[in-house]
Amino acid sequence: MIISAIVFENITEFIGRFHPVLVHLPIGVLLIAALFQWLSRKEKYKSLSTAVSIALFWGMVSAIFACISGYLLSNSGDYDGDLISNHQWFGIAVAGVSILAYGLNKRNKDNIWVSGLMVLLIIITGHLGGSITHGSDYLFKAFSSDNSNSVSAKRVPIPDINEALAYNDVIRPILTAKCYKCHGSEKQKGKLRLDMPDLILKGGKGGLVLVGGRVDDSELIKRIFLSKDNEDHMPPLEQPQLTKAEMELLHWWVSSGANFNKKVNALVQPDKIKPVLLALQSEEVKEELKISDVPAESVEIADQGTVKKIQERGIAITAVAQNSNYLSANFVAVEALTEKDLQLLDPIAKQLVWLKLGDSKLNDKMLTSISDLSALTRLSLERTAITDQGIGQLKNLGKLQYLNLIGTKVSAKGLEQLKGLKELRQIFLFQTLIQPSEADQLKKLFPNAKIDFGGYKLQFLESDTSKLKDPKLK
Question: Among 3.40.718.10, 2.60.40.10, 3.80.10.10, 3.30.870.10, what is the CATH number of 293-452?
Fold first, then answer.
């Protein structure tokens, strides 16, 4: 009996998912019917009166089916109840008025005012449907200065990361930008809401998605770290993706207990997460899209077969901006990096301007494969095994504006090999062999670049180290 109920629920939900397809038919047909009816009042277009009856009939029928499928879809619980209710009743009103309009037309009675009401209801219903899918502010969002989904949306720098609230100041902005569209107040895919602490802990249709201190049991974290070609990967590929830093921050917060009230200085801060936290305090680091502009000159689109082959290796290839043929490559999902992986980028060398290899198995020998990517404007090599021996191979990247060497074994002598890169604007050297006392020397070599050594301090906590004791010993 229970199995039958589940099967029935799945079937009705399946039928309901045809609503986005069915709903456009009555909109078009009924609007055409209203237009023809208005035109047929003139002698010149009198012949259109026959088409009015046919259009009203099929518009009425399709409106009824759209209402049925919409009702079945609303039972999935993926959407806000108030928005659904308003959209649902206005949709029923459209179907009802279309029936009335068809009946009056069959009796040859003038129903121009009924048709006018029908058009008005269609407009209102369509707007409410768009609000459900795209958010209640979607119509006027282009005129809003607060556009969190915009590529240029800015995260406000945190003056003192140590005193910031971990959830409210660090984690919530990530969820707002990347998760609320599908799991917010207006839409809840999988019956999951991530816009309020109690609802995050409640979980969704499949159960709990977050278990404090247990990353492996937290579905939220597991899904964002899945390969992008996995159907369970979140966010969906058509939505803005989490950056590596955002993924690391979410992982750190959950592994630290997923507390909604504690400050950053009250949570354990492993060495790997400290630079990421510090970046939130620095205006220059946090605004990644400001660092290097997309080249002004146009470039032909990359061969899609080549791009697909690269993506099949797990390398994320994305456009750097809407309607741009320039590309960004991110190796975050490539576990065992080889020189052959980097050579896959050769066919898209003209289009590739941003390259992210941070936390990969990159070594000095592999830098040879990067030296031919002459269009690069941004290069991230943080926490890799590169040294002075290999860094010189980057001297041919004449367009390079941004270079991240955080956590590498590069010294000032090694970096000096790149003094010919006149376009460099930002160099990040936190936790390298280069000392802040050498800043003046480097400034002479790179007069146009801002050289960042970190310069921020996080409170050292006793909890940063743990004393392990054998439970058998007393």
Answer: 3.80.10.10
